[in-house]
Amino acid sequence: MAVNSRIADFRNMSVDDRRKAVAASTGLDAELFSQLDADAFGPEDAANLSENIFGVFSLPLGAATNFTINGTDVLVPMATEEASVIAAASNAARMARPHGGFFTSSTEPVMQAQIQLINVADPQAARTRVLERQAEIIDLANAQDPKLVEVGGGVKGIEVRLVEARTMTYVLVHLLVDVRDAMGANAVNTMAEAVSGTVAVIAGGDALLRILTNKADRRLSRARAVFDRDLLGGDEVIDNILHAYELAAADPYRAATHNKGIMNGISAVVLATGNDTRAVEAGAHSHALVDGRYSSLSTFERNADGDLVGTLEVPMPVGLVGGATKVHPAARTALQIAEVASAQDLAEMIVAAGLAQNLAALRVLATEGVQRGHMSLHAKNLAASAGANAEETAIIVDRLIKERAFRFDRVQSILDELRSGVSR
Fold first, then answer.
1. DSSP helix/strand/coil, 79
2. Is 260 a catalytic residue?
3. Which among 260, 339, 378, 380 is annotated as catalytic?
4. How far apart are the C-alpha atoms of 98 and 228, rounded to whole Å?
5. Active site residue 82
C-alpha cells in the first residue's frame, strides 16, 4: 500500500513528476506508467472490448491523495472528465485524517440471478415446490462453474418471490451466488440459463427472463469517517452541511443531485479500474429508494465532540477479474496503484471515495457555493479549448474568477485582447 498518501504539492507537479511521486509512494516501477500513454491502447485493442470500433475515447486518469482506509494509506485512482472531482475528494480525505480516515466493511460478494416463470397455474404451490428441490437446483447451477465453487463461491441459496403484475402473477426464482472477486454477471447469467428449464418444469410454467438483477442489495459496502470540525470551518459550516443533508434526505429533487455528487466519486474509481459504471449506478440509485421514496444514500450527524460524522452504504458489484480489468492497460495500472487484494477491498475503497466526494460537495455548497471552486477549474478547460497557452490561461482564469463570467465567448474575447496587446 502507499507509504503516505499525503504527497506534498501533488496538484502543481508536471505529469511526469506525478508519475514519479506515485511510483515512489506505492513502490511501483515508474515504467508501469508507459501503459497510460496515448498509443498504449489503440483501436485494435479496443475491438476486443466492444464492436464497430473506429477509435478510442480517452478520459483523464488521476489519483486522489490523503486517503487512509482502515489504518492504511492508499492512493485512489479516478477517471473523470469533470473538473474538481479528484481535488475535492482529496481535500475531504485530508479533513478525515486527524480522526483515522475512513473505516469500511462489506457483506459477502453475493449477486442474484432472476428466472422469470410465466403461465404458472398455482403460484403459491409452485413457490413451495421449487424450494423443496432447492438442493437439486443449487447443484445443477454450481456444476456450471466448478472453478468458482473451488475458490469458495457458487450458489449459496435460493429465494422465490411472487410478483403481481397486470396480466398474471409471475414466479421469480432468485439464485444467490457468491461470485468472489468477479463482478459476476457472466457467472450468474450462465447459471440462470442452465437451471431455468428444470425450474420451469418444477413450477409447472415457462421460463422467460434469465438474467442477473443490478439491484445488488446482497452485496453492500460501507464507509464511515469523522470530518474534523476545525478543518471544515467550524460549527456554522457543520450546521449548514447538516441542513443540506436533511434536505436531501427529505426531498427527492435535492436527493438526485446529492446522490449524483456521491456517484462523481464512485463512478470515477469504478471506471478507472475497468468495472461497469452502469451496473454500479443502477444498483446505487435503486438502493436510494426506500419505502417508495427516493432519498439520500449517505447520512451525516454531529458527534459528541462536535465533529461531523458521515456514513455511506451502497451496493457495490465490482470485480478484479474479467472484462476491462484485465484487458485495458489503464485499468491494470489503476488496480496496481490501488493495491487492493480482493473485490471487497476495491468496493470499500470506492465507497470511501464516494463519501469523500459527497462531503466535499456539501461543504462547498454550505460555504462559498459551487461556482467558485468548480468553475475556476472549468475556466482552465475553457481557456484550453480556446487555444490559450499556459501564460494566457493563468490570466484568463484570473479574469473569469474576478468577473464571475465563465463563458467561452468571454474567454475568446480576453484571448483576443491579450494577443492584440489590448488590456483593460
1. strand
2. yes
3. 260
4. 7
5. yes
One DSSP character per residue, 130-147 reads HHHTHHHHHHHHHTT-HH
pLDDT digits (tens, 9 = 90+) for 100-143: 999 999 999 999 999 999 999 999 999 999 999 999 999 999 99
Cell representation of residue 173: 426464482
- What is the structure's pLDDT at 421? 75
Contacts with 386 (C-beta within 8 Å, 6 or more apart), sequence order: 396, 408, 411, 412, 415
| Residue 287 designated active-site | no
- Burial 260-285, CB ≥16 within 10 A → b, else e: ebbbbbbbbbbbbbbbbbebbbbbbb
pLDDT beneath 50, residues of the chain: 423-424
* Euclidean distance between CA atoms 372 and 401, whole angstroms: 7
* Residue 367 CB-half CA count within 13 A: 16
- The pTM for the full model equals 0.89
CA–CA distance from 43 to each of 46, 50, 58, 80, 365 (Å)?
5, 10, 12, 21, 41
